[in-house]
Design a protein that fits this description.
The longest helix is centred in the first third of the chain and has 10 residues. By secondary structure, this protein is mainly beta. It folds into two domains: about 180 residues, protein yfey like fold; about 240 residues, no CATH class. The chain starts with a strand and ends in a 9-residue tail after the last helix. The radius of gyration is 27 Å and the shape is elongated. The chain is built from seven helices and 26 strands.
Length: about 425
């Protein structure tokens, strides 16, 4: 049985770990993975058809705890304890819920102090006590309804026994029904860089030049108080590995692309030369971005922007990349690209493919099948890849965009036209160790 401390409007945890309101989904999963054998029977609940309208939930049925994440920002907004008998809870170092201490109304009032009069919900037959960032819900017998209607100070217990908490909610703010996920807390930064927004830089002829990233991380002041530090960086096609590392810091992981599925179409001379070198991925998981460097020139030739939708093969590997750019149909190339026309569309991480395909022409898609490292089948099924100009859209079966790949249309230095065409046909799938 877990023995946890609550901090209203902040966290639920113990000495070694804690679930903090505002933390990212992947950080909560990392905590659970670190407690293998202690936290068991984990369930992840989400909507396949409406991933932006339904909360993402991590359910811990054997511990009576439920973590509720906002589906858009994917940060923790509510912590629920739905079965008080499966967990020990304390506040200020003193237990108010355990096998020896029942969480009755008197016990809650004793542990947390005075509050406003409780609220009775006749439809659900629940009586609620609300503190700032914390709410307790009590099941109400119909014979006690009259006494409850007058608030906490005049409760009447005909049976002589006080009702016991059936559910507890921990959240940010003063109203549990209007709770929102707070910004990522400083305690969850862990010396990493995070993405606020990404703008795709497009040239006047409608092709990509690179990315303009608004970033934030943990800074410090002379008073030794940690603060959020914001800054902007541009990464462009043709930047070297050193350029990108200097702008974005060290990647979370470096992956050497050893498999080239298009190599069978190359001449024997090219295959032999390519076998001696490998393209390199810089994986920035907290930015939701991958940067691919050419093996020959060591310069950037491709960006992969991830949307981190549940139900995708790479879900929980990346934070969502909040990208944005305007896309113009090829039919409007004679117009001034700097001005929107009736056929312009703004592409974001939340756009659907049917909205985009209504503006841009699309050929028959390439079906992308992924498999795990153990060659087991992908339980989420295939995705579909559509190409337009220098962009590849990876689309899920629910019509949401799983990733966007931007590739350079300028051949690397000293690269032959034949090898350049082979580069454009390369497998677009992203592999990570």
């Amino acid at each position: 049985m877990l023995d946890l401390e609550i901090v209203p409007e902040l966290s639920l945890g113990c000495d070694t770990w804690e679930f903090v309101l505002g933390m990212h989904f992947s950080q909560a999963i990392a905590i659970i993975q670190s407690q293998v054998g202690i936290i068991k029977g984990v369930q992840v609940l989400y909507s396949d058809t409406n991933p932006l309208g339904v909360d993402i939930i991590i359910n811990l049925p054997q511990d009576g705890v439920r973590l509720i994440f906002d589906p858009i920002v994917q940060r923790l907004k509510t912590i629920e304890v739905f079965n008080m008998k499966l967990v020990k809870l304390k506040y200020g170092g003193v237990h108010f819920n355990s096998p020896e201490v029942l969480p009755s109304i008197e016990q809650i009032e004793h542990s947390f102090g005075a509050t406003h009069p409780g609220v009775y919900d006749a439809a659900k037959q629940l009586f609620a006590l609300h503190f700032r960032g914390l709410s307790f819900f009590f099941p109400v017998d119909s014979k006690l309804q009259e006494g409850y209607a007058h608030g906490l100070g005049s409760l009447i217990f005909l049976s002589g026994a006080s009702p016991v908490v059936s559910k507890m909610s921990l959240y940010s703010g003063s109203n549990v029904s209007e709770t929102r996920a707070p910004p990522l807390p400083l305690s969850c930064y862990h010396r990493q860089i995070y993405l606020d927004s990404a703008k795709v830089l497009r040239s006047t002829n409608g092709y990509s030049k690179g990315l303009k990233l608004k970033l934030y991380t943990e800074g410090s002041s002379r008073s030794l108080e940690h603060r959020r530090q914001c800054f902007t960086r541009e990464v462009l096609f043709g930047d070297s590995c050193q350029d990108v590392a200097m702008k974005l810091g060290a990647p979370n992981r470096i992956f050497f692309k050893s498999e080239d599925k298009m190599k069978i179409h190359s001449s024997s001379v090219n295959r032999q030369a390519q076998s001696k070198r490998s393209d390199t991925f810089f994986n920035y998981f907290t930015l939701g971005i991958d940067v691919l460097f050419d093996a020959r020139t060591q310069t950037c030739k491709k960006f992969v922007l991830h949307t981190n939708y549940p139900g995708h093969f790479n879900f929980n590997m990346y934070h969502r990349c909040e990208f944005k750019f305007n896309l113009k149909s090829e039919n409007d190339h004679d117009c001034n690209y700097g001005k929107k026309s009736s056929e312009d569309i703004e592409v974001t991480a939340y756009a659907k493919w049917d909205e985009i395909s209504a503006v841009v022409p699309s050929a028959r898609p390439v079906v992308l099948h992924r498999a795990s490292s153990t060659n087991t089948a992908n339980p989420f099924g295939a995705t579909f890849c559509y190409g337009y100009q220098d962009i590849i859209f990876e689309v899920m079966t629910n019509n949401h965009i799983a990733s966007i790949t931007l590739y350079s249309t300028i051949p690397p230095l000293k690269q032959t036209e034949q090898s350049y065409q082979e580069h454009k046909l390369q497998d677009i799938s992203l592999s990570v160790a």
